[in-house]
Design brief:
189 residues, 26% strand, seven-stranded antiparallel β-sheet, alpha+beta
């Protein structure tokens, strides 16, 4: 029973934050990272871009959320990784404070658009998150859900929730997390 309630607890704990943080002055702009951009693993600075570079090139997936953003849902620890065509940040709820090890990932894909999201077995669903085009793909066999947010014509950010009892619950959590990170993404060119 506890495993089944986990996504609802996450949504109940974080949803009020989204409702209250959704108010704004009506001004639109770009979220700025708290720290300056570092250099990429190739040693080049990530702040500049050419006309061929995707918008995603300067995005660090671990900068899209903070532990403070997730505090009401528990103590989450981020871990950065690269592979499979993405720069990823894996967030896991700590078991130290009674957490259950719930994990999700935020993946930045520089060379895959929302048009390339793969059907994981339950079809693709087009939707919008804060007026940004998005695509949801569910894998019912394993309870997985991936929600992809459009960055530009060649890149996207995915929120991936693995292995929940119900894909609908996993997708509710993915949509909540996507709602938190979407305001921090650059505008669609």
């Amino acid at each position: 029973m506890l495993r089944k309630l986990r996504p609802q607890l996450f949504v109940v704990g974080v949803l009020p934050l989204l409702i209250f943080s959704g108010c704004s002055s009506g001004e639109q702009g770009f979220a700025q990272p708290k720290t300056p951009m570092a250099t990429s693993s190739s040693g080049t600075t990530t702040t500049g871009s050419s006309s061929a570079a995707p918008v995603s090139a300067s995005i660090d997936p671990c900068d899209l959320l903070s532990s403070e953003d997730l505090a009401e849902a528990g103590n989450f620890e981020p871990k950065y990784d690269e592979g499979g065509g993405a720069r990823s940040c894996y967030w896991q709820r700590s078991g130290a404070d009674g957490g259950d090890g719930f994990t999700f990932a935020v993946n930045v894909r520089d060379a895959q658009s929302v048009d390339t999201v793969k059907d994981l077995g339950a079809g693709l669903v087009n939707l919008e998150v804060n007026e940004r085009p998005a695509v949801v793909s569910k894998k019912p066999k394993f309870g997985d859900c991936t929600l992809a947010l459009k960055l530009d014509e060649q890149s996207r950010v995915d929120v991936a929730i693995p292995g929940e009892d119900e894909t609908d619950e996993a997708c509710e959590v993915a949509e909540t997390i996507a709602g938190m990170i979407e305001p921090r993404l650059p505008g669609i060119p």
